[in-house]
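Attaching the record inline, Q. Sequence:
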Amino acid sequence: MLYASFARVRPDKVDKLQAWLAELMRRRAEVLESFRQEGTREEQAYLLPDGQGFVLVHITDADDSDQANAAYETSSLPIDIEHHAMLSECLAERLQLRPSYRCTAAGD
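Structure, as predicted:
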């Protein structure tokens, strides 16, 4: 199932976050190990400009987002520890958005 989250990026941390996202691409093997622990199939991240700066749009495909989040939060993998620290440093408030439209073939 797809899950999306949105968070405002601290104005002075946009470049640092962009560099981190590029580093994740270079460290694909570590990211995939994290995916195996979480039950995640895919992630995508976008830095979306708006009138107030940038919003990080994070999309995840996982069977169970609660289980994936719990595995991430308790992970001892270096990539997850670094990722958690980077997001804590670079992100401001999380935006609580609900889908305006959602439809699945499974009907859930």
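Residues 21 and 45 are 8 Å apart (CA to CA). The chain is about 45% helix and 30% strand.

More tomorrow.
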